[in-house]
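Module 6 notes. Inverse folding takes a fixed backbone as the condition and produces residue identities as the prediction. Think of it as a translation problem where the source language is geometry and the target language is the twenty amino acids. Below is one complete input and output pair. Work through it position by position during the lab.
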C-alpha cells in the first residue's frame, strides 16, 4: 500500500471528524507526535496495533484505511479477512481445548474427592474390623478358659453340662460377630 494513500486516507478521516493529526496521535494512544506519525506513514513502518488504534479513534473500520482493488503493495482486504478468519478459527479451537481441559480438571477433582471418601470409609471399616477382631479374640480366650478349667471328680457330670452350655453360648456369640464382620 502506498504510504501516501494511507496518509491521505487518515487526513481525510481526521478532517471528517474535525481533528488534526497531532490530536489524533495523542487520542489514539499511539505514543508519537504528529511528525512521528507522518514519519511512520512515510517510512511504511506503521504498526498494525497503531493502525487499529487510529481507526478506532476515527470511528471507522480499519478496512477503510486499507488498499482496494488490484494494488500489489501491502496486504489486501481479502488477505486480511482470510488471516482474520484463520485467527478466529484458531481462537475458537483454543477455547474448546481450554473448555475440555477445564472439564478434565473438574472431573479429576471429583474423582479425587470420591477417592478420599472411599479411603475414609475403608479406614473406618478397618478400625471397626480391628475392634471386632479383638472382641473375637476375647471370645476365643473365654472358650479356651472354659475348656481348660479343671473338673473335680464329683462334679464331672454337672460341670461338663455347664461347660457345654457356656461353650454353646460363646459359639453362638461368635457366629453373630462373624456374620456381622462378613456383612461389612
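Target side of the pair, the amino acids:
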Amino acid at each position: 500500500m502506498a504510504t501516501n494513500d494511507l496518509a491521505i486516507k487518515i487526513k481525510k478521516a481526521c478532517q471528517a471528524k474535525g481533528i488534526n493529526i497531532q490530536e489524533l496521535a495523542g487520542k489514539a494512544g499511539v505514543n508519537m507526535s504528529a511528525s512521528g506519525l507522518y514519519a511512520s506513514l512515510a517510512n511504511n513502518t506503521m504498526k498494525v496495533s497503531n493502525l487499529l488504534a487510529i481507526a478506532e479513534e476515527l470511528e471507522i473500520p480499519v478496512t477503510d484505511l486499507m488498499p482496494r482493488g488490484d494494488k500489489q503493495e501491502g496486504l489486501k482486504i481479502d488477505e486480511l479477512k482470510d488471516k482474520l478468519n484463520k485467527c478466529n478459527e484458531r481462537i475458537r479451537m483454543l477455547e474448546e481445548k481450554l473448555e475440555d481441559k477445564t472439564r478434565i480438571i473438574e472431573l479429576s477433582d471429583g474423582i479425587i474427592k470420591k477417592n478420599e471418601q472411599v479411603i475414609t470409609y475403608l479406614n473406618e471399616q478397618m478400625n471397626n474390623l480391628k475392634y471386632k477382631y479383638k472382641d473375637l479374640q476375647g471370645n476365643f480366650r473365654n472358650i479356651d478358659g472354659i475348656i481348660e478349667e479343671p473338673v473335680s471328680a464329683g462334679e464331672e457330670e454337672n460341670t461338663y453340662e455347664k461347660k457345654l452350655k457356656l461353650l454353646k453360648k460363646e459359639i453362638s456369640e461368635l457366629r453373630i460377630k462373624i456374620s456381622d464382620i462378613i456383612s461389612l
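Reference fact for the lab report: The first helix runs from residue 3 to 17.
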